[in-house]
What does this fold into?
Amino acid sequence: MKKEILIALSIASILSAKDLDGKQVFETYCWGCHHQTAVAFGPPFNEIASKRTKDEIEAYIIEPKAMYKAFGYKRTVMTQFKLNNKEIDALSKYILSYKGK
Ligand code: HEC
It folds into this structure.
């Protein structure tokens, strides 16, 4: 019995340690306004990736209202989401994977 519990626990920890799929997070929250390489309502990811760092991208996702002036926008219409650190990390990596594309 004890052994089975230990096995179940280790499987659960393997599953939760798995990296989130940035594409999936993007499709859930961002796809309505951003596309990977085409201009949509917001700028495309290849353009963002060419001019921003990982920290800048994450700061913008966390609080567009605090960042838009520094990014050169006159106003912001981007939705602010409540995302966890893993989701934000997966998103910024996904955006940066479009650098040069
Ligand atoms: C309601 C539409 C909308 C949604 C949803 C949205 N965005 Fe945006 N985003 C924009 C617009 C428009 C801009 C341009 C500036 C502004 O209005 O804030 C922008 C700007 C950005 C920027 C900064 C662009 C630059 O100049 O470098 C990043 C990074 C970004 N969005 C990432 C995301 C991510 C990641 C998501 C999903 C979690 C997301 N956005 C969801 C509309 C949206």
The mean pLDDT is 90.
